[in-house]
Amino acid sequence: LRYYADTQINDFASPMARAHLAAALALYGDANRSGTSFASALDLASTQQVNLARSDYGSNLRDAAAMLALAAETQPLPQSIPAMTDLVSAEAGKQRYFSTQDNAWMLLAARGIRAADDTLVLDVNGTEVTGAFTRRLSGQALAAEPLSVANRSAEPAVATIEVLAAPLSAPEAGGDGFTIERSYYTLDGDEADLASVAQNTRLVVVLKVELQNDWPARVLVSDLLPGGFEIDNPRLVGSADLKAFDWLGEVSAVHSEFRFDRFVAAFDARPGGNSEFVAAYVVRAVSLGSFVHPAAVVEDMYRPQYAARTEEGRVEVGPAQP
């Protein structure tokens, strides 16, 4: 550890890697080298440029949050914690979408610095509250009684508000970094019209995805079923039972799930490799009625700003033909 810290620290190409080295030194008891390594990690995190070709699922935000979480846990350089916290807040403020890696490390970072909230004093609707404060309210409850929060501490406090709601109208088809198409066919290979489907009809759903960037990616496709449909056969098309779909070729999904309400498939994209993916499955119209037809969605699992969706519509399931 000392050798790497003294002679090879600049060869660690990410702030997270340097922070892991620094945390290991702190746990070993070498606070001086740990502090120097954390300072190096902070310097790199403050100046590095985004590299979308990374294959370790990393991002500037993920690395900064990991650095903060490790520094807050080991505390070799406590005076750097505020600067690291400001950096994580700034990186989070730049992004609209967060990967699972981003969220996990931000949670660990928040846990690491929670002791700083012990001196927080707030006035919540006229009542003094000490320490960290959270409150979850429905829109109806908030309209009936607004929530007033005032900071009574000597230091500034950061307030975060999250809103969870359903959109009034479906987002338009399109996206960034991908294209996705969804088609329906009869078992004989003819295109099917979902405007009106007879009950008990079996259809083949074909999803075509094209990746528009040449970098390593973990691609996730999710197709929500209309309310009146269910997956009929839990396997990808390509079996001998459906010879009309030989044109689909070899299905390259590394993982697939056939859930009650959706079909999910994951693909690995490699630089210079295949940028087009096809998945398919069989559904059956089981319930009479008119149903919302949700969009199919594709996204880069670790760069969630790159995603695309099909159009949303409606499907009619009528009585079975005599």
Which secondary structure elements does this structure contain, and how are they paired or packed?
Layout lengths: L1 H7 L6 H14 L2 H17 L12 H15 L6 H14 L5 H13 L8 E4 L2 E4 L8 H6 L4 E3 L22 E3 L1 E8 L11 E2 L3 E10 L5 E8 L4 E5 L21 E4 L3 E8 L6 E10 L3 E5 L2 E5 L6 E3 L3 E6 L4
Parallel strand pairs: 6-16
Antiparallel strand pairs: 1-2, 1-3, 4-15, 5-7, 7-12, 8-11, 8-14, 9-12, 10-11, 13-16, 14-15
Helix pairs in contact: 2-3, 2-4, 3-4, 4-5, 4-6
Q: Any overview of this molecule?
A:
With 322 residues, the chain is an alpha+beta fold. The protein is built from seven helices and 16 strands. It has a six-stranded antiparallel β-sheet with strand order 4-15-14-8-11-10, with no helix packed on it. Helix 4 (60-74) packs parallel to helix 6 (100-112). The mean pLDDT is 88.
In short:
The protein is an alpha+beta fold and 322 residues long. The protein contains seven helices and 16 strands. It has helices spanning 2-8, 15-28, 31-47, 60-74, 81-94, 100-112, 139-144, and strands at 121-124, 127-130, 149-151, 174-176, 178-185, 197-198, 202-211, 217-224, 229-233, 255-258, 262-269, 276-285, 289-293, 296-300, 307-309, 313-318.
The number of strands is 16
The share of residues in helices is 25-40%
Biggest sheet, open or closed, and with what strands and sense? Answer: 6 strands, antiparallel
Indicate the mean pLDDT.
88
User: What radius of gyration results from the CA coordinates?
Assistant: 26 Å
Shape: flat
Distance between the termini: 77 Å
Which structural category fits the helices and strands? alpha+beta
Low-confidence stretches are none
Strand content: 25-35%
Output the strand order for the largest sheet: 4-15-14-8-11-10
User: Which series of helices and strands comes N to C?
Assistant: HHHHHHEEHEEEEEEEEEEEEEE
By DSSP (H or I, 4+ residues per run), the number of helices equals 7
